[in-house]
Amino acid sequence: MGNMEPSPFIISIYTLWGDDSSAGLLVKLYSCHVVLCSNMPLPILLVLSILPAYLATIPPNIIITLGHGVGYGDIGANNPYTTATLNIDDLIERGLNYKDFYLSGTNPSASMAALLTGRAAPWTGVTKWFGGYSIAGLPLTELTIADYLKQAGYTTGYFGVWDLGHTEGYLPTNRGFDYFYGAPYTRDDGCVIADTPSKDSVCNKDRGLPLFENDVVVQQPARFANFTNDAVMRKIRRFVGDAFMAKQPFFLIVSPFAVNLPKISDAIPTHEMVLGDLDSLVGKTEDLLVSHGLEYTTVRMFSSKRGPIASMCDRSGNVGPFLGLWQPTNYKGTAPTAGTTWEGGVRVPFGIVYPGVVDPKTTTDRLTSVLDILPTIATLANLTLPSDRLFDGRSISEDWSSEKRNFTHSSTRDSLAFFGDGTTRITAIRKFNDKVYWRTSGVKGCNNVTSPDLGEVEHQYPLAFDLLGDKAEFNNLTYNYFKLRLYEECLIAFNRYYNRSGVLRSVADYSESESALVCCGRENCECSPDSVPHKGGVLDSLQMLFAVPSNQPAALSSKQQTNIPPADFGKFHYEPVDTDRKLIPLYGMVFMVVGVVCVVGFTGYHGYRRVVRRRYGYQPPMKEEEEQSQLLESPWS
């Protein structure tokens, strides 16, 4: 102790004091305590030992990235033969990969409704896709994740394709999201314009695909340049930057455009190119978090809101081993992919990353559903969900550590129900390792041949497949009488649950009208500014990086469409909530307490040594040679 070196604790404070994220600082500080500071005085260790409990009270940021038509075998984490998703694979490798993750619906609208509400189709009423002619969307009686998180002080954003309605009251900004940049539906009901003239630059549909910013149509038909990763990342950077400066936790969903776009030039993008674009967006989002010091305090989830689309042929996704061979074998020309409840249509990738909480480089075969995302986020953000409605999911936080994952918990799911396209009837059930179908359907195959039996087929005896040994779903096992009884009992239990009375049950309106088509208010419904201008926000000093000036007239609101002043695009400012303001001095208090303990401990320790020296005399420890010589000279030796 004679030659005192600076404490690693003091070094860590000096080094990390300028970190962008206070919570990130605490995480790194705690890591320093664990790795470097094992020789620190006991009082300091006691103070640092409370850091994990304190960190658990900090609400994490949450990012959900959703592909469209991305199959189970499209990512390297599930398929060692692909290298198109290196960033996604790296992300999932740093967390937990769920091998048995399912969508609740067979189309994007049903999947998004289940994700945002945590409720299955019988409760939300969402069973079909909301297109350009739809006059409604997700029922207004339903609350979303964004609604709940806003009450907890989060700022919320949605980037990409919405799929849950576009008329007044149904856009993301009406469903709990503070900011929206994207399209209300996929290109099926609208076209985009390429940056260079081509035969695909002319819209051959009723309306061009609208590009929204908040509730304003800023471009129609949308130009491809405003759907690229760079364009979306500009918006995401601004959103995260505003939330960061306001010291608010943020929640955002990214549903990229690339996997939703049609052919926009003579060069047809391959599926690998589309995947690469999605992968690049994931990588840029990770870089953004690192640049703000938010990588330790942000939960990242990756999945897809729809399985591969067979009719896209070589541009379709990879279902992995889940080929659904029974369907094309018995009904020629049909495919068991997106739009069906076969494994290839509803089984998609899912991974979650949360450093320090979720064990890295782990996998699990726990039966998991998109319905589990809302209860999980409620656990992360310490939310209390309303009691006036039933939620079908469970929090999957029990799977995040090896100690908990090795045991069966009361909330562990052993069965899951699936609903067909356009119906709230149960068409299939997953029970343990078996998948049972009472009704099956097929979609158009690659050759676009429509079978007479393309629609839903009801079976006199259910089809059953052992997914453990028959992932391709080829061998029907309905000859097992005992299993059939188990399946029927499971079906009866699910029907009894979903037919309960006295609980909130919403009704979705699927009426269509030409008046519902989006029109920006200009002549021929065409608004074509070269780019979307950016105004306001905390990053104006970087305007050249985020904006391209435009002299075009502003677009009109989709709500009123006439006689409104020009919109101030991109201007959104968030006031930090009181609870976050109170947390700022709390960070300083923690460090002040730790500093005082360090000073008191150091001073007390050296004061004690001085007292001992004066009272008893202090002799430095003798070397071994001196000790041996004294023993030899001792008269008692």
Protein described:
The protein has 637 residues and is an alpha/beta fold. Helices cover 31% and strands 13% of the residues. It contains 18 helices and 18 strands. Strands 7-6-5-4-8-1-9-11-2-12 form a ten-stranded mixed sheet, with helices on both faces. A four-stranded antiparallel sheet has the order 14-15-16-18, with helices on one face. It has a two-stranded parallel ribbon with strand order 3-13. Helix 3 runs antiparallel to helix 17, helix 5 packs across helix 10 and helix 9 packs parallel to helix 10.
Features:
alpha/beta; four-stranded antiparallel β-sheet; 18 helices; 18 strands; disordered C terminus
Give a summary of the structure in a few sentences.
With 637 residues, the protein is α/β, with parallel strands linked by helices. The protein is built from 18 helices and 18 strands. It has a 10-stranded mixed beta sheet, with helices on both faces. Strands 14-15-16-18 form a 4-stranded antiparallel beta sheet, with helices on one face.
